[in-house]
Amino acid sequence: QSALTQPASVSGSPGQSITISCTGTSSDVGGYDYVSWYQQHPDKAPRLMIYEVTSRPSGVSNRFSGSKSGNTASLTISGLQAEDEADYYCSSYSNSSTLVVFGGGTKLTVL
Amino acid sequence: QITLKDSGPTLVKPTETLTLTCSFSGFSLSSSAVGVGWVRQPPGKALEWLALLSWDDDKRYSPSLKSRLTITKDTSKNQVVLTMTNMDPVDTATYYCAQSWAILVRGLIRPKYFQYWGQGTLVTVSS
């Protein structure tokens, strides 16, 4: 069982927006601004999409945005495209002995 | 350009020790705020953090696997090695190394995120 809770799946039509939630505790998501999001296509390595809650690495589309409220972080993808279909994982620093925690992953389907 | 390449055996027997090597370029593990970590992913399952080695040689492990893991570095070769003892079929997974950015707060490391990842090595544990 993953430390961070994500919905197992979300879906949307091309052009629409979707939001994926990631719920933790005050020991991780709620306590620190070290939430990151990763995109993973089948049989590929994860790719960093969002870091430190809201920042985008160079080369990541501005259709991807991150936010946080309390113990829940969110990833929003606007203007959905077919290439966005993938698994998405959230991650956070944790002040517990498990230094880095991940969510269980969310499968995004573009209808 | 930062790249990482993880390598190791694709098949190990139960009770054996797994040794994985992460060869990287484009950054130095001696540079402040830099770390290299290992993350694994069983088939069809979620990512799981295993270990982290920081620029000041601080080593941290997943508590559930701490007794079985060792992470070391060879700065001259730009390599980080992860060993996992007493392998079991439940350890079957793709193992990734990744470059991490981190900070030190009151002497304790806080990894912020993993920016660059290796391609992953699928390790199957079977007799």
Number of strands of chain B: 11
Structural class of chain A: mainly beta
Strand content of chain B: over 45%
Specify the number of helices of chain A. Answer: 0
> Which runs of chain B of at least 5 residues are low in confidence (pLDDT < 50)?
none
SS field, number of helical segments of chain B = 0
The chain-level structural class of chain B is: mainly beta
Strand content of chain A: 35-45%
Outline the structure in words.
The complex is a heterodimer of chains A (111) and B (127). Chain A has 111 residues and is mainly β. Chain A contains no helices and 9 strands. Chain A is globular. The N and C termini of chain A lie far apart (29 Å). In chain B, the strands form 2 sheets. In chain B, strands 2, 4, 5, 6, 9, 10 and 11 form a 7-stranded mixed beta sheet that branches. Chain B is globular, with a radius of gyration of 14 Å. The model of chain B has no long low-confidence stretch (mean pLDDT 96). Chains A and B meet through β7 and β8 of A and β5, β9 and β10 of B.
Tags for this entry?
heterodimer, A: 111 residues, six-stranded mixed sheet, three-stranded antiparallel sheet, 9 strands, B: 127 residues, seven-stranded mixed sheet, four-stranded antiparallel sheet, 11 strands
Short account of what is shown:
The complex is a heterodimer of chains A (111) and B (127). Chain A has 111 residues and is an all-beta fold. Chain A is built from no helices and nine strands.
What's the helix and strand layout?
The complex is a heterodimer of chains A (111) and B (127).
Chain A: E1 9-12, E2 18-23, E3 35-40, E4 47-50, E5 64-69, E6 72-77, E7 86-93, E8 100-102, E9 106-110
Parallel strand pairs in A: 1-9
Antiparallel strand pairs in A: 2-6, 3-4, 3-7, 5-6, 7-8, 7-9
Chain B: E1 3-7, E2 11-12, E3 18-25, E4 34-41, E5 48-54, E6 59-61, E7 69-74, E8 79-84, E9 93-105, E10 108-117, E11 121-125
Parallel strand pairs in B: 2-11
Antiparallel strand pairs in B: 1-3, 3-8, 4-5, 4-9, 5-6, 7-8, 9-10, 9-11
